[in-house]
Specification:
By secondary structure, the protein is mainly beta. The chain folds into two domains: 36 residues, no CATH class; 404 residues, Porin, CATH 2.40.160. Helix content is 4%, strand content 52%. The radius of gyration is 23 Å and the shape is globular.
């Protein structure tokens, strides 16, 4: 009887809210709190499911069993967001979920916080200040990527250089300022990096000479900034995450530049075995273009190019692979390491680019349209004698915008080994690839 009374009370409460003149449900899970719709609470959700074949790196094993190839299904991302404009000047934002869950992950993963921020609009859109666990990063456009509208199958992780090492999937605890003044859009932040001792990923320890690693000293503050000039349509800066494609709904041309700096973030041993501290420094310039060709048909082109300069100290290199397909190596293992690892981040310079063409919105009738794309990175790192060339080609089947999308992607990656002179070089005939079919659903 008590349960029946409780259910009836909940139903009556929901009906009362829905009928209230100050609260209306529309635009999905969005509740407007006043008549002019300037105050609201909104909820969103997203899932990206991978079906993958990977040609594993040489010597890869799963719990000691050699595995030349892997077929797996994984949850690349599951995210939920709750945000709200609670007064004319106060906005809050939260995001939680999981990342990279496959059969090798610890079972029963717990949802964790990605973002929890509150901000105050000081003066119009010119300046807003906020703080909390946030992704208001600098360096480049895709140091903070919007996961719901990625152009390709996955994020350009080469621009997320400290991902889960000294941050929480690119988020840190700190404060930020943002704003738009005419065509100028800016963001600056100061944050406390997480100590690497509590990272959930393996962080290389200091070893040898003239080879930098993350310092285990208490981390200094990290400062970041990114500024862009918007020539055509303005992009929203309500959230920190940049869109990969607007699917023919906008005309955007932005030129941007940014930086990241952290004192004594790294250390290394010199020839005398003295341990020296050195800063983490990053600088970037990039250009983003996304425009419809015909506004009614919504066919469009998208292009992005970035030049990135990374300084993590002498000869720093870090291998990484999304949702790794193996967990060990044996015998003839390469420098890449296990599964789908790549020498991804290091001290040196990187050129990254991506491009796509979106066919008209009704190319497949009620079944949507297609968006073929290509992307690639060319990195020249101090520690490696050959450049690191990674490229992807694929197609997005846009069924219902970004709410229902299927992506088919092929990625090719290099394999590095130590040669007879002790130099790390690409083994030219040993490239590996992976094919991923991803389904994205969001609301």
């Amino acid at each position: 009887m008590k349960k029946l009374i409780l259910v009836m009370a909940i139903c009556i409460s929901i009906n009362t809210i829905a009928q209230s003149p100050s609260a209306r449900f529309k635009d999905g899970l969005k509740i407007f709190l006043n008549d002019d719709s300037t105050k609201y609470i909104q909820g969103t959700g997203l899932a990206q499911i991978w079906f993958r074949y990977n040609d594993n790196n040489p010597g890869s094993t799963i719990y000691g069993t050699p595995k030349k190839e892997t077929f797996d299904v994984g949850l690349r991302r599951v995210r939920y967001q709750v945000m709200g404009q609670v007064t004319k000047k106060v906005f809050f934002y939260t995001q939680f979920g999981i990342n990279s869950f496959n059969s090798l992950s610890a079972r029963k993963p717990g949802l964790f916080l990605h973002d929890v921020t509150a901000e105050y609009k000081v003066f119009k859109n010119y300046i807003t200040i906020g703080g909390g666990l946030n992704g208001w990063n600098g360096t480049s456009r895709y140091t903070s990527s919007g996961v719901g509208n990625i152009l390709g199958m996955d994020l350009p992780t080469i621009e997320e250089t400290t991902n889960d090492v000294s941050d929480q999937f690119v988020r840190k605890l700190g404060v930020y300022a943002k704003g738009q003044i005419g065509g100028l859009d800016y963001r600056f932040s100061a944050a406390n990096p997480f100590p690497i001792q509590n990272s959930l990923t393996t962080v290389a320890a200091l070893s040898g000479t003239n080879s930098a690693a993350y310092s285990t000293k208490a981390p200094e503050m990290q400062y970041q900034g990114y500024v862009k000039w918007q020539f055509f349509d303005k992009e929203s800066n309500l959230l920190p995450y940049s869109a990969g494609s607007y699917l023919g709904k906008k005309r955007v041309l932005n030129v941007g530049g940014g930086f990241t700096y952290q004192k004594d973030a790294m250390w290394y041993r010199n020839a005398n075995m003295d341990t020296l501290s050195t800063p983490l420094q990053q600088f970037a310039l990039d250009v983003f273009y996304d425009s419809y060709l015909n506004k009614e048909k919504q066919n469009a082109i998208t292009a992005y190019v970035a030049f990135l300069n990374y300084d993590f100290g002498p000869n720093y290199i870090r291998n990484a692979g999304a949702m790794n397909t193996a967990n060990g190596t044996v015998g003839t293992a390469s420098f890449n390491g296990t599964g789908n690892n790549i020498p991804l981040i290091g001290t040196g310079q990187v050129a990254y680019a991506q491009a796509a063409y979106l066919f008209k919105k009704d190319l497949l009738g009620k079944n949507g349209t297609l968006q073929p794309y290509a992307s690639g990175s060319y990195a020249v790192y101090q520690k490696l004698k050959d450049p690191v060339l990674i490229f992807d080609i694929g197609v997005n089947w846009i069924i219902a915008g970004q709410n229902s999308k299927i992506s088919l992607d092929y990625q090719s990656r290099p394999i590095f080994n130590t040669d007879s002179n002790g130099d790390l070089r690409e083994t030219k005939n040993a490239r590996r690839g992976q094919i991923v079919l991803q389904y994205q659903v969001s609301f």
